[in-house]
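Hello,

Our lab assistant flagged a job as stuck in the queue for most of the afternoon. It eventually completed. Since we weren't sure the result was trustworthy after the delay, we are filing this so someone can double-check. Below is the sequence as submitted and the structure that was eventually returned. Let us know if re-running is recommended.
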Amino acid sequence: MATAPKEAENTIGLEEIHTERKEPPKGQKTFTVEEAVETIGFGRFHIMLFLIMGSTGVVEAMEIMLIAVVSPLIRCEWQLQDWQVALVTTMVFFGYMVFSIVLGLLADRYGRWKILLLSFLWAAYFSLLTSFAPSYAWFVFLRAMVGGGVSGHAQGLIIKTEFLPTKYRGYMLPLSQVFWLAGSLLIIGLASVVNPTIGWRWLIRIASIPGILLILVFKFIPESARYNVSTGNAGAALATLQRIARINGAAVPEGHLREPAQERRGRFKDLIHPKYLRTTLQIWIIWLGIAFAYYGVILASAELLERDPVCGSAALALQDSSDDSEESHSPCHCHFFGPAAYQSMIISTAGEIALNPVNILSINLLGRRLSLCITMGCTALFFLLLNICTSRAGMVGFLFMLRALVSANFNTIYIYTAEVYPTTMRALGMGTSGALCRVGAMVAPFISQVLMSASFLGALCLFSSVCIICAISAVTLPIETKGRALQVGTTPPGAPVAPKAVRDL
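-- returned structure --
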């Protein structure tokens, strides 16, 4: 039955996904979601989007950093050995790794917004349960469940990316690091007050509050218009775009919202196609190494400040050992953070934002590959500098620079991975890279909290070696994405569609 074009716009529903789509009348203007987003431009909606979706990073940072500030207390309460403390962090990232794949698949099927809401409810629920954990085994299990919930917070970044105009994406992603920094500083500040007074269980309960509050403001952010169009729900996508336009004081383009041609997407074999095989393997190595170094720095900071391995500390340790009770002869004796340790953690954590302006300039002037190679090489150097016999201030300075460098590494590889893959496999490329990232994060605790206790220099050399391998992998990546347009399909723009065009880059 024929209807007016305007009516057709507003009546397309989910039930039409499997029906044959009619072309708009000849001569009628059409536009895509991408064109609408660019036409509407950046405005008040995007500021609200940046603040709300960016705040998911605050919650994620608090949950991830929580283990670093409660480790000394649970070690003492349950008389844990080093490997048992390390296992807690490893299980958090194991839950994160497994659930990130599951929630990613569900988000593609049921929507980003729904999975984001579910993940926040899940993480808040199990985080609160963790505060009542009666034993170490329950604590490990519940924190793994929290890690699973936190993995869904990445949907906030996806929603933000899919709504932002192209020219703002390269700047907004590095700026989002501010939210992670805020969450890290908040949990350290809370720990310095709560841990010595009412205990770590209340710290976990208080740390759950920001996530619960954030759930209440999710209603102001709509489902991704790109997701709605991909499922055939063009009516919902158009309504969302019109709402954004009203908030921004702009207008959507004239004409009919055209849905993009449906292509096969998310095929794993595309990642290992000869054209992208080398790129994929090197990206995976870099993601694994960056996460290994990043979480290694975080956990090593806690261990260094807890044990205070600076000049003269060995003598102090010998002196203290003669006065301690028999508990000190156990590998599980208690070492609590004092005010100076928390202050040092805050200073070193603040380093994550220190190189942000330099990082933004570097990736735009030197390119992604060379910029990442330089920062990874510097990361390797500063890991080795931790072995220098220095004062506490010197050690904090080294940790400050390490946090700045590993943060810059993450920013660069995140941007590169999103740019190098075409649209048909970009989400899968990011997803598999994230999974390898969590593998590195799972290994890091056993180096920072176990090997470092046995061989301090050995642990530092291992971290440094991994960073050097990543630096080499970065500079030898086959494709430089600086100034390169985002690819839509697997064939580069302008290349002939022929078997010879598909070559190993």
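-- support follow-up --
The delay was a queue issue, not a problem with the job. The result is valid. Residues 277-307 form the longest helix (31 residues). Confidence is low (pLDDT under 50) at residues 1-22, 312-332, 491-505.
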